[in-house]
Write a structure and sequence with these properties.
The complex is a heterodimer of chains A (about 300) and B (about 300).
Chain A lengths: L2 H28 L4 H4 L10 H10 L3 H32 L5 H10 L9 H9 L6 H8 L2 H6 L12 H5 L6 H13 L2 H9 L4 H12 L1 H16 L3 H6 L8 H9 L7 H21 L1 H13 L1
Chain B lengths: L11 H28 L1 E4 L4 E4 L3 H7 L4 H33 L6 H9 L6 H11 L6 H10 L9 H29 L3 H9 L4 H39 L19 H10 L5 H26 L1 H5 L3
Antiparallel strand pairs in B: 1-2
Helix pairs in contact in B: 1-11, 2-3, 3-7, 3-9, 5-7, 5-9, 7-9, 8-9, 9-11, 10-11
């Protein structure tokens, strides 16, 4: 390998690292400056970071947005991982009729991104449920109307955490990942457990979960980042600022008027990046290994 | 299929599947059926009226009065997707290949390249909105200083479209590079070494070995980047350009950065307020998604076999 080409490789890589990092470093520097410097092209770090953070936390509601994002992201990550683990276990360790059909029905949802369905999903979530049992009975008695006429009733969950959590708790990807992982675990382990008289619950607790930390970690990273970064659905279904999540909250902080406090906004940007980055760094090893496993087995 | 079914219970598997099932049926399958039902109705969000119109919404979108707008939106969504994929994926492939070579500091480069993996579309939109603000943005202040120009990034159709593409490519770089670096680790180094001994130059080695060996991962990334361009880009576009500005003829029936999903939300939750049109366009997107997923299953299957040794 010639010295000259090596030099060129380094140059390209340094430029690439700079391009990848620049906008975030720009935001970081701007979040430390005083207002007059923020609006200039100056890239000299200032000493206003804590002031900007305090202002965006308290005056611009960022603390509330971040709290809401945490509640939603943690609930979905934990719930989705648990439900996928349960479904994967059922599909691998039990024999029951229509197993292939059931698996197919779950996989088919890969072709139904929530975003395409936001208009009908909005109705299902936000319409009010039936008021009386008589109404409910009349509604449930006509399944043809339920399916083939525009929805009349829903869950009445507009402006609640439930609207941002419950629809996302089941996952084709997660079920698929756990199924693949379980199928790669030697059958002899399950046999041994059964011969020793272990119940399915004990098998789950003592064998499956301890052997699945890489898959659990990989799925947790994907789900946490996915939910934390979600924008469209919360923007539509949540219309009360005190329940809004951080991604939409950033836009609320920018506002519509002229006097945007860009120093605050950039502090908000930097703070909103921290949780997914921490999750990624903490679970990076499981993430890489979980995927290596799912690809090779 | 290997059979690991060691437990005998009849009820337990259904109990384990029940929660996932209820959620998928209620929040995906039922809305998917409702999307069809709604697309056959004309609804007015503000008057609260709704009436059955058959396939009128589809006709309106593709041959009727609104055809110009919807065809433009579909075309520019695909153009946007194509640019994001072509630029983003070729850039990240080259960068990842360079960072995987045995050179000093390769580990540091790799670390510096992957940390923006979890960047959100909204954050990318926010930073670019500030950087490219025509009046107070740093980019224009520098351009003004150097060349005496202040381009109207967000109101000029070509510039705004280009800016959305640029922000999207940047947003996806970290993500693409992570996956390429992982795939490159699986390519045996001996392969490149043997080729080098046979006299293959670096560019030849990249074209003959690295590129084909990466093709399963490229296929996967094309798919995920297309998903980004179709759906997740909404946050970036909503913050940066709000779907605008309206283009030059013949692209003047809609904002140049209005993607299909952006038009769905305009129709469904604002603007025209016609949920029937929104649902119909949703079904059109669903059609594209199904075609893409089938392609992914048909040709992407190789990816699983490739690592299967």
């Amino acid at each position: 390998m010639g010295i000259r080409r090596n030099w060129l490789t380094h140059l390209i890589l340094i430029v690439a690292c700079a391009v990848v990092a620049f906008p975030i470093l720009f935001a970081l520097v701007k979040s430390t400056q005083i207002r007059s410097a923020v609006l200039s092209p100056s890239l000299i770090p200032g000493d206003q970071f804590l002031t900007n953070v305090r202002n965006v936390f308290l005056n611009a509601n960022l603390l509330v947005f971040m709290r809401n994002s945490f509640i939603v992201a943690i609930a979905v990550t934990v719930g989705k991982t648990t439900l996928s683990l349960m479904a994967g276990m059922a599909l691998v360790y039990f024999r029951f009729p229509f197993k292939r059909g059931v698996f197919g029905l779950i996989l088919l949802t890969l072709m139904m991104p929530v975003e395409v369905l936001i208009v009908p999903l909005f109705d299902v979530i936000s319409l009010q449920p039936p008021h009386t049992w008589a109404e409910f009975a009349a509604w449930i008695a006509r399944p043809d109307k339920i399916l083939f006429e525009p929805a009349r009733y829903g869950f009445g969950w507009a402006n609640t955490y439930l609207a941002m959590i419950v629809p996302f708790l089941a996952s084709a990807t997660g079920t698929f990942l756990f199924r693949q992982h379980f199928m790669a675990i030697p059958r002899s382990l399950a046999d041994a457990a059964r011969i020793d008289g272990a119940t399915p619950w004990q098998f789950l607790q003592r064998v499956l979960v301890p052997m699945s930390w890489n898959t659990i970690g990989a799925l947790a990273v994907i789900e946490f980042v996915y939910i934390w970064n979600q924008y469209l659905w919360p923007k539509i279904i949540i219309r009360r600022e005190e329940l809004q999540v951080v991604q939409v909250g950033l836009n609320l902080i920018i506002g519509t008027g002229e006097g945007v406090q860009w120093g605050y906004v950039m502090a908000g940007v930097i703070l909103s990046l921290v949780p997914p980055l921490v999750v990624f760094m903490l679970l990076q090893e499981q993430f890489m290994r979980g995927f290596a496993l799912s690809e090779s087995k | 299929m290997k059979d690991n079914a060691v437990f005998k219970s009849r009820v337990l598997p259904w109990l384990l599947l029940l929660p996932s099932f209820l959620i998928l049926l209620t929040f995906l399958y039922y809305p998917a059926i409702q999307a069809w039902v709604l697309s056959l109705h004309r609804s007015n969000l503000f008057l609260g009226t709704r009436r059955y119109v058959g396939l009128d919404n589809f006709r309106l979108m593709f041959t009727g009065a609104l055809a110009d707008k919807y065809i433009q939106v579909v075309l520019q969504t695909f153009l946007y997707g194509f640019l994001v994929i072509a630029i983003g994926i070729s850039l990240s492939m080259v960068i990842a290949a360079l960072a995987s070579q045995k050179i000093a500091g390769a580990r540091v480069y790799r670390l510096l390249l992957i940390w923006p993996f979890a960047l959100s579309p909204a954050v990318a939109g926010t930073i670019f909105l500030f950087m490219f603000n025509p009046d107070i943005g740093s980019v224009n202040q520098i351009l003004n200083e150097l060349f005496g120009v202040k381009p109207r990034w967000l109101d000029t159709p070509t510039l705004a479209f280009g800016l959305v593409v640029l922000a999207s490519v940047w947003k996806n770089l970290g993500y693409n590079i992570v996956f390429y670096l992982a795939a490159l680790q699986n390519i045996p180094y001996e392969l490149a070494e043997a080729a080098a001994i046979d006299g293959a130059g670096p560019i030849q080695r990249f074209l003959r070995i690295t590129f084909p060996m990466l093709s399963p991962m490229t296929f996967f990334l094309v798919f995920t980047n297309l998903t980004f361009a179709f759906f997740e880009s909404f946050g970036l576009i909503d913050i940066l350009t709000k779907g605008g500005p309206v283009g030059f003829p013949p692209m003047d029936a809609a904002g140049v950065s209005t993607t299909m999903i952006y038009q769905v939300t305009l129709d469904g939750f604002g603007g025209s307020g016609n949920t029937g049109l929104a649902a119909a366009l949703g079904n059109v997107i669903l059609f594209f998604v199904i075609v893409m997923t089938l392609l992914q299953f048909r040709y992407g299957g190789r990816r699983v076999q490739y690592g299967d040794n």
